[in-house]
Structures are given as structure tokens and as C-alpha cells.
Amino acid sequence: MQVTLCRLRTHQWCFILFNVILFHALLFGADFVEEYFLHSLPHVDMKILDIKDKARKLNLEPLRGNPSKYYILNQPEVCNGKTIFLLSLIFSSPGNGTRRDLIRKAWGSVTTVQGYPILTLFALGMPALVTTQEEIDAESQKNNDIIEGIFLDSSENQTLKIISMTQWAVAFCPSALFILKADEMFINLPGLVDYLLNLKGHLEGIYLGRVIHQDIPNRDPHSQEFVSLSEYPEKYYPDYCSGEAFILSQDVARMVYVVLNEAPVMVPADVFVGICAKSVGLIPIHSSRFSGERHITYNRCCYKFIFTSAEVTDAETSLAWKEVSDGKECSLFETYYGLISCKLLTYLDSFKHFHTGSAKDNAVYFGN
Ligand SMILES: *[C@@H]1O[C@H](CO)[C@@H](O)[C@H](O)[C@H]1NC(C)=O
Ligand SMILES: *[C@@H]1O[C@H](CO)[C@@H](O)[C@H](O)[C@H]1NC(C)=O
């Protein structure tokens, strides 16, 4: 091997180098381009200044004074008198109690990262069954970490859920600097907090996630996700953060609260937040470390680097959290190798699922 390498001519070396660069460009090119070119300057005009002013002077007394009008379970005291760096609201289905227990044992148990206080709560709507409600009541008694809004928790009502939980965060947890909305997926809290700390003083105007660029509304009237022209007339949605996981800073949540009633409700929940953010002049910040709807194939050092991974199994949840939080560091090379391996495997996986994909989508949809 050594001998053959030494004998290579310059053009052969160039060819190898070219291939190495091409390989990396194909694998990481999109991430790089997205992260560095998706930033443009936020837009500010009088209307936006007015919204900022309203957001600062919000009157939350009606909500705080009468929470039972909006929430069945509402932990009014959990944030009192505390500064919280990151409030993570896990959007959970009412019937998924076992999953919640698993999360409580994993990242749900984290109370500080690098000395910064973290709080994890579960966000629910109402279940269809009375018996499920009884189970949730018992679970809430035991753990004091469930917020339950007054609306049926269905796939069609996810925008209502976002609205209800944004209101809760603004009214009952105003001391939280950042708010994470995440599904019941893998969340690398230490990694996320580290990233937020590195924003160095940019504690305001943050709307961060996996940005979807130039998405088009579903105009098929037979589809469940149909969006009519009268509801949303434009050709493209504004750039928005994919709904599985994104972060808002507290001031952004307050601004969203101000404009909630002006945005169309019949669009997907994540698009709804994007429309609100646009109307307050915000540009979402992209990070490819958010997985979006993708499951990232497990690798320890890869999971220490990424922020989220969707559709993790119960076994993977426990393993991933155990290994990510065990304090064992990954060297630069291990991280590099981990990223290459989990990226390649994730791509291969998506090819494997290509054929079964549409059937699975339907199953997930109707399973809800
Ligand atoms: C509830 O759990 C099931 C099975 O783990 C999962 O498929 C589903 O996505 C979960 N619901 C939510 C809202 O995450
Ligand atoms: C959404 O929630 C409201 C309030 O609970 C309920 O009346 C409505 O049926 C729900 N919509 C769907 C499609 O589940």
C-alpha cells in the first residue's frame, strides 16, 4: 500500500483529492450552503416596531387570572421565581404515557446543562376517551409536568396546540429565555444548550430550526391537508422551521402571541408559526443539526453532534440518552467519522424505505 501510494503521479494524486472533495461536497454541501446562505437581514418597518412595543407591554392578566378557561391541566407554579434558560415543551399525544415515562427517564430528567437551568414539560390536548383523561390526571398528579389545553388533540388541531402552548409559555413561563417545541423524538439537550450559549448574547429574535425554503401549499381539494386560495393566496409559504423541533426566544414567542389572530389557522402548524414570524419581520435561522422528520441512523458521536432525530424506538431512546449523557467525549476524528457514517446510513435507509414510503405515510396518517 505504502509503496503504491508513493509511486502515484501528480495527476493521480489530483484525481484522488478531487474524489475526496467531491464526496464531502455531496455529503455536506447542502448543509453548508443552507447554513451560510439562508441568512438575510430582518426586515423592520413601523408596523413591526408597533408589534414589538405591544409584545413588551402585553397584558396577560386575563389568561393568568382564569387559566381553567384555557387549560385542563396547567402547572401555574412550575416557572415561578426561577430563571430558566431553556423550556422544552414536548408535544405528546394524550395516549402516549409510556413514551412520556421513557422521556422522563432520559432527557426529561435534565435540570441543568453547564449550570444553566432547563425545564421539560409535556404539551397535550384532550383525549377522545374519558378513561385516557383519568390516566393523564393520575400521571399529572405524580409528575407535575403536563400542560393540557382545552381542545381535542387530533392531527387537524395541531395549529391550535401551538397557539395554546405559546400562550402558556408567554403567560406562565415568562422567565424562560428560550422555548423549544419538540415532538416525542430524540433530543440532544446538552448539544442544543451549547449551541444556544454560542450565540453569544443573541438572546432575542431567535427562530431556529431546520428551515424549509419555498414550500408550496397543498392545493389538492381531496387531500386532508388542502389549503384553499382564500385561506392562503400566495404561491409559496414563507421560510419556516420544520415543525418536529424548533426554538423561539421569549421575545419572539411574545411577538407571535401579538399576531396570532391575524394569521390563517387552516395551514400546517409549523407554517402557521412561520407566517407569524414573517409578519413580525423575523427570518428563521437554519441548522442542519435538526433532523426534521428524518430518523438518523444511530451512532454515538453523531448523536452527540446532532440536535434531534425523529422516530427513534424506545430501545434507541434509552441507549442514545445513556451514551450521549455519559460524559465520554468524542474526538474531532470520531465526530467526523460518526457524521459520515450516520449520514450515509440515513441516506441508504431512505432509499430502502422509498418503495414502502407512501404506504407508511398513509398508515401514520390514519393511525393518529
Ligand atoms: C405516540 O407514540 C407512537 C408510538 O410510539 C408514535 O408513533 C406517535 O408518533 C406518538 N405520538 C406523537 C404525537 O408523537
Ligand atoms: C379541534 O378541537 C375543537 C375543540 O376541542 C373540536 O371541537 C374539534 O372537533 C377539533 N377538530 C378536529 C378536527 O379534531
From TrEMBL:
One of its GO terms (molecular function) is glycosyltransferase activity. Its main location: Golgi. The lineage of its organism: Eukaryota, Metazoa, Chordata, Craniata, Vertebrata. One of its GO terms (cellular component) is Golgi membrane. Keywords: Glycosyltransferase, Golgi apparatus, Membrane, Signal-anchor, Transferase, Transmembrane, Transmembrane helix. It comes from Mus musculus. The chain crosses the membrane at residues 12-30. Belongs to the glycosyltransferase 31 family. It is an enzyme of class 2 (transferase). Pfam families: Galactosyl_T. It is a single-pass type II membrane protein. It is found in: Golgi apparatus membrane. One of its GO terms (biological process) is protein O-linked glycosylation. Its EC number is 2.4.1.-. It comes from the Eukaryota. This is Hexosyltransferase.
